[in-house]
Predict the 3D structure of the following.
Amino acid sequence: MDKNDLRLKILALVRDFHAQEWPDKKFEPGETYIPYAARVFDEAELTNLVDASLDFWLTTGRYAADFEKEFARYLGNRYAMLCNSGSSANLLALSALTSPRLEDRQLVEGDEVITVAAGFPTTLNPIIQNRFVPVFVDIDLGTYAANVDELEAAVGPKTKAIMLAHTLGNPFDLDAVMRIAQKNNLWLIEDNCDSLGSMYKGRRTGSFGDISTASFYPAHHITMGEGGCVSVNDANLKIIIESFRDWGRDCYCAPGKDNTCGKRFDWQLGSLPQGYDHKYIFSHIGYNLKLTDMQAAVGLAQLAKLPQFVETRKYNWQYLRDGLKQFEEHIIFPEAMKNSEPSWFGFVITTRSGSPLKRSEFVNFLESKNIATRHIFGGNLIRQPAYQNIEKRVASTLSKSDYVMNNSFVMGVYPGIDQSRLDYMIETCERYFRSI
């Protein structure tokens, strides 16, 4: 048996293994745990993973190249660059703006970047890590997106960029934010980590800003286990981002390739000697944030499932919305941004002021019935211990961020939640509401 036949036999055995290791399990109401998010996969991910491992090409390779091409096509962008996490993608996106290659649009220490206070830390952290000053604005209840009036008012003489996430799958007001960015010559970074597949005016989120980011952590829309991606349309930004990802090197050869430029030993940069090996010339103070081809292999199988995942998320969200509508006197329901079709990450419940409904009691009840919940990330991030003493500008009272911090939580809508689980989630909520 030659090696190709052996590979095919191994992959056939992997499919058999998958069928035995991960059979469908019957849902037992109250006994089976319903996570707020989880991986959804079948034999395709497992066979891709093993196929990549048999190549023993441990860094990025053929699967990564295929994924980047298909992912860029999905978003409608020219380029996609894989990295090891969505957090790293955010770090790369903002770090790229410090490159001297950007000339008069280069960001320097002390420049301001506008973001929201009610978000996830890794949208904020790259601002601090690059020694920029975060400018915090509030959100609107219902959409949980940045208040665009506050955002516009927050622009100052040192403001150089806007970095916002599409919260829980719901696009922010892209018309307004794009207008503000263009009017003030600001960079716009779309953190699309929770919103893969969302649409705004018929166009995918992640295709509007100068740079967009994605995460492939198991809780997100598709997974590689760990993994992230940065996407752009500008060729100069692509080169800069790849440099920061790959140790800061000036060379843009793919792993295992040499002399793509055709003059590997004919460069003179910095004060290096003429002809110094281009593979060891560094134009940025970068990182090593690449991922493995085995991760990309899993992601490629997931990407094929993404359209169905998105439709299931939409259905689950709407089913919960319809099932809980009877409790509107107690709940501020989530609302899709105007002109958008969200690929929902979760279903937000916010208690109304004056209602006897208390978040802590409701959450504890759901958790006791094996229904997982999460708060909306870090609440008002400036109240978190890590950010107490950072340099910042707060351009709002942040009253809505505080309200969310105290009164909101999220239930799952991920594709592993089927009809029987949805019905149990609604019935459990009904039981709680009858008790208050």
Remarks:
- The chain has one domain: 26-248+283-436.
- The radius of gyration is 23 Å.
